[in-house]
Design goal:
Layout lengths: L11 E4 L2 H9 L4 E4 L9 H11 L8 H18 L2 E7 L2 H4 L6 E4 L11 H14 L5 H9 L4 E4 L5 E2 L12 E6 L5 E4 L16 H22 L6 E2 H9 L10 H15 L6 H12 L6 H15 L8 E7 L2 E6 L7 E4 L4 E4 L12 E2 L3 H4 L21 H11 L3 E10 L5 E7 L1 H7 L5 E6 L7 E7 L3 H23 L6
Parallel strand pairs: 1-2, 4-5, 6-8
Antiparallel strand pairs: 3-7, 3-9, 7-8, 10-11, 10-14, 11-12, 13-18, 15-16, 17-18
Helix pairs in contact: 2-15, 3-11, 5-6, 5-7, 7-10, 8-9, 9-10, 14-15
């Protein structure tokens, strides 16, 4: 229940259960409702873990102080990051020579038999594309029989939307963080409709992937490598926020900005008119082309913030169509996961919630970097995903300030008086407030090959954050013993 604002001093102030306020108001009294609930959903162990890591003691050696210092460093790395698009590797195996028969996928590790329909369909398509099998049936037998290895994209410094499949022959974009010198990779956006990332694997899908490999990728490589220092992805994202994108579910402005950046070098010097025009027509007709590049930029940024000892900042949110998983800066490469929720939002005609697959894809890396749901206030065009009113979209961004460390000055939100976007999701604040990060997302059909059936919002399960909090407490306690020779307690 929203707070009941009264014109005069309330006779009752109720904290917590809203039913008490409703009964008081029904009796004619003035009442003020203050929403509150115990941290960790009332679990005493979680509440104790939180208290240990957030004590406000002036003692600089306290566990909370360790975390605060680490978080300051992690978010500064986020703010300082400068992701530059510097190359296209014409084949993923050029980046990862050890791939052989390995397929990268979105989300945390998952076995074949547990994969959702779209993920299995995409795996079959990639197997056909690589020529490892001649028919879908043969591909399925190979995949089920353990003849192909599976690895999360994130474990290879990569990201991919929806099923996120990257196979050895696929071209990948290459980004470098000009400040911290770390690299990240992603595949190319195939467009909309029946595409591999949604589990489609017909001959048309395979032929389109080959066109990307043989025409689009070489043309983009020629352009990108001709630009001194590369293309500034963060600058495009920041400008797009001022033009109506939140740079996750909506990338119309960002794609147009990218298009403008590549046209002059694409048409410079000697070039093949037919190939160049094919590339431009495809990008120009695909308003979501920049999605993969937004993910790439965000991955480059968040990898720079990962690995800060004692930090409670979330550096990845990822979904494999079955579970949602997070990574935390101070907890190395560990995944903390629970079953995914179904996205809630707007469905295309003919489809309903019953058709939806649980949340899927690496694209929530955008939220960890401050885009997407964090910056929903920047994109009035997406208000139908959240109920149809601009103030609701603005409200989501305001809500996200409660669970983040700071505001990013390079990411201005016009409808919030150009305030910086919420930046640096802190697992302590998530558990303390009960507010889970909001993620804007496409909704995939649960059957492979049907494709996108809508778009909406979803939130990662709270269990991801409570489990990570317990693991972080152990890690910070270990650091305290190492640095101070004893364990400080409340």
């Amino acid at each position: 229940m929203a707070p009941h604002i009264v014109e005069r001093t309330p006779s009752v102030i109720n904290v917590g259960v809203a039913d008490f306020t409703r009964s008081v108001v029904a009796a004619g009294a003035d009442a003020l409702q203050i929403d509150w609930h115990p941290p960790g959903k009332g679990d005493p162990n979680t509440a104790w873990n939180l208290a240990r890591l957030t004590d406000d003691s002036s003692d600089s050696t306290s566990l909370g102080a360790h975390v605060d210092r680490a978080n300051a460093e992690a978010v500064q790395r986020m703010i300082d990051a400068r992701p530059m698009l510097i190359d296209v590797a014409l084949h993923a195996r050029d980046v990862w020579p050890e791939m052989e028969r390995t397929l990268l996928h979105a989300g945390a590790p998952i076995a074949w038999e547990k994969m959702c329909g779209p993920m299995q369909g995409a795996m079959i398509g990639a197997t056909l594309y690589e020529g490892w099998a001649a028919t879908p049936e043969a591909a399925r037998r190979m995949l089920a029989g353990g003849e192909v290895a599976f690895l999360p994209c994130h474990d290879s410094n990569a990201v991919g939307p929806m099923s996120g499949i990257i196979s050895p022959s696929m071209p990948v974009f290459v980004a470098r963080n000009a400040v911290h010198e770390n690299y990240a990779y992603t595949n190319m956006n195939e467009g909309i409709g029946k595409v591999l990332r949604f589990g489609a694997n017909s001959q048309n899908v395979i032929d389109h992937l080959r066109w990307i490999e043989r025409v689009l990728a070489p043309e983009l490589k020629r352009v990108i490598t001709s630009v001194a220092e590369g293309i500034d992805l963060k600058a495009i994202q920041s400008q797009a926020l001022l033009m109506g994108d939140e740079v996750h579910s909506r990338n119309s402005a960002a794609t147009a900005l990218f298009y403008a950046a590549i046209v002059p070098p694409l048409l410079a010097g000697d070039f093949d008119y037919d190939r160049a025009s094919q590339a431009l027509r495809f990008i120009g007709s695909n308003s979501q082309f920049f999605l993969n590049l937004s993910m790439l930029s965000s991955k480059t940024t968040m990898d720079a913030a990962h690995g800060v000892e004692n930090s409670s900042i979330v550096t990845a949110i990822s979904r494999n169509g079955v579970t949602t998983a997070i990574r935390v800066s101070g907890l190395d490469g560990a995944w903390f996961q629970d079953f995914s929720d179904l996205p809630v939002g707007l469905f295309f005609p003919g489809f309903t919630q019953d058709d939806a697959n649980p949340d899927l894809g690496d694209s929530a890396i955008a939220e960890t970097a401050g885009f997407g749901g964090m910056s929903l206030a920047a994109s009035p065009a997406l208000v139908q995903l959240v109920g149809g009113a601009v103030n609701e979209a603005v409200g989501y961004s305001r809500e996200m300030y409660n669970i983040t460390r700071t505001k990013n000055p390079a990411m201005s939100l016009p409808l919030l008086d150009f305030a910086g976007a919420p930046t640096g999701i802190d697992i302590r604040k998530v558990v303390d407030t009960g507010i889970r990060p909001v993620v804007t997302t496409g909704i995939a059909h649960k059957e492979p090959g049907i494709g996108q059936i809508g778009a909406g919002i979803v939130r990662p399960p709270m269990a991801c954050f409570t489990e990570a909090l317990a693991a972080l407490l152990e890690a910070v306690e270990s650091t305290a013993r190492r640095d101070h020779g004893k364990l400080f307690t409340l």
